[in-house]
Amino acid sequence: MAMLRSMTRPKTRATRRKAKLPAKAPTKMVTGKQQKRKPQSRVSPPLVKRQMTEANSQKKGENEVEPIDKQHNDLSDVVIISSDEEEEEAPLLPDIDPGIHKDVNPPGANVERIPGDGEGIPERMLLKITTKAETKGVSNSLPESNSDSPPTQDNPLNALATVQSEHAQEIQRLLQELDAANAENKRIQQLQDTAAKYRELEHARATSSTENKYAAAVRDLENGRREILQLTRENEELCVQLDNTGAECDVLAKELSDVRALRIKEKKEHEDILADIMKAKHVLAKELTDIRALRTKEKKEHEDILADIMKAKQVDKTSANKHLLSENQRLRAENERLNAVAATQAATSSSSSPQSSNITPLTPQKTISPISPLSIFKNNTPPSSQHNRAPWSPLAPSSMSHPPTTTTTTAPSTSTNESQKDDNIRTIYTKTKRRFDNLQSVTMQLLHCTRGMDLALLGEFGKLVTKLRDVLNEDGKDRANEGGIK
């Protein structure tokens, strides 16, 4: 987990140093002149550290001694290497000291200075490359030569052996350092391989994450396309619905305009009706006032007429009584006269013929009783019918030629006055009844028109219509009560 976390962190210079990874150094061109090229020699295996004992040295001397001629032949192969002291080469590895390469030579070879031809060249040095076998052969042969001859300072072989031993020790030390450097290089190479693997893993993970992201993006794109198609279909459906709704709105707008026009027309008609109703209200109020005044006047006239009728009846009754009394007195006097005439005629006829005895004269007891006025009004019989009830008697022509003057003068005058009054009452009643019927019909129509209205919203007109309705209801109740009483 820690390794993965370190891999996911950003690579910086500090993290590279911490992980001991080699930093990339800028490459420099190393200028060098080579006079003679030599084919690449085979690298010998590294030396094995052995304890320098006499047995080992003898064994090595037996196995590794080579002829001197071969050494001299190897010394002829000279390689001249030139280097610029002013140039500084960048280290290949950051963790290795750059000074370690100054004295490092290829393994299995010793470098010696060859005097002679190379002294004329400044800053250049002729080097002789000797192999390990030669070095070991020389080192092993030194004890034998030393054992044969005593050591002298002027002996070049001793000096050469000393130098070769020093060089061998130095080469061993350098080989050890080279082994250490190779081990460090291997370790660094392993670290580089590990870092490369980490980078490959990160690249694979990044690639996989990128592929996953690409697949997710493709899926999102497909989903977006499907959603776009669905939204397009929904948009088309909504457009169709919008068109239908627009058509319906146009129809509804036309209907609304028609309804508004109709409502304006109805409102105008309602206002006209209200104006007509107000006019009718004023007319009805005026006519109602006139009717009430007329009814009051007619009632007063009716009372006056009734009073006149009662007075006339009273006068007629008194005059009739007087007339009857006078008529009764006249009839009595006439009866007495007729009785006297009958008596005289009976006396004369009895003396003249015997048949006159059959005629019975009128006696004074059989007189006509006076007739009361009530019997006249109840029976409605004329006074002449009363004479028929009396026994028949011959009347004188003088008595029949004088009718009563009182009856002929008073009766026609009273009948004409009563008929005129009756005609006047009948005419006034007819006119009043006609007006009342007209007003009642108009009022009923007005109440029929306003039966569904809220009269409280009509203000004063509603109050007047309510009062008019109450008056008509009371009038109907009064008429019903009068009909029940009759």
Approximate strand percentage:
under 5%
Looking across the biggest beta sheet, what order are the strands in? Answer: 1-3-2
**What structural class do helix, strand and pairing data support?**
mainly alpha
Shape: rod-shaped
In DSSP terms, counting alpha (H) and pi (I) runs of 4 or more, how many helices? 11
Describe this protein's structure.
The protein is rod-shaped. The protein has a domain of 153 residues. The chain is built from 11 helices and 3 strands. About 32% of the residues have low confidence. It is mostly helical. Strands 1-3-2 form a 3-stranded antiparallel beta sheet.
Question: What features would you highlight for this structure?
Answer:
486 residues; mainly alpha; 4% strand
Q: What secondary-structure arrangement, pairings included, does this model have?
A:
Elements: H1 2-8, H2 13-18, H3 54-64, H4 68-75, E1 78-82, E2 109-113, E3 124-131, H5 132-148, H6 156-352, H7 373-379, H8 383-389, H9 397-400, H10 405-449, H11 460-485
Antiparallel strand pairs: 1-3, 2-3
Helix pairs in contact: 3-5, 5-6, 6-10, 10-11
